[in-house]
Specification:
Blueprint (H helix, E strand, L loop, with lengths): L2 E3 L4 E3 H19 L28
């Protein structure tokens, strides 16, 4: 009852969800997105939001 006919193939709904999840996992890994925070490990600081250090003596 949970099979869907997509034309070129017939897929089971649960199998399609697993395949979509695996594809998303691979894409996230290729982009370098961390999947989970490791316990006891501090995240690296986001350098894009830090202000640059001033080199002038008045600042």
């Amino acid at each position: 009852m949970d099979f869907i006919d997509y034309g070129p193939f017939v897929g089971n709904v649960a199998d399609i969800a697993i395949v979509c999840g695996c594809v998303a996992l691979v894409l996230l890994c290729l982009r370098g997105v961390p999947l989970a925070k490791a316990p006891g490990v501090e995240p690296l600081p986001d350098v894009s939001t830090e202000r640059p250090a001033s080199t002038s003596p008045g600042d």
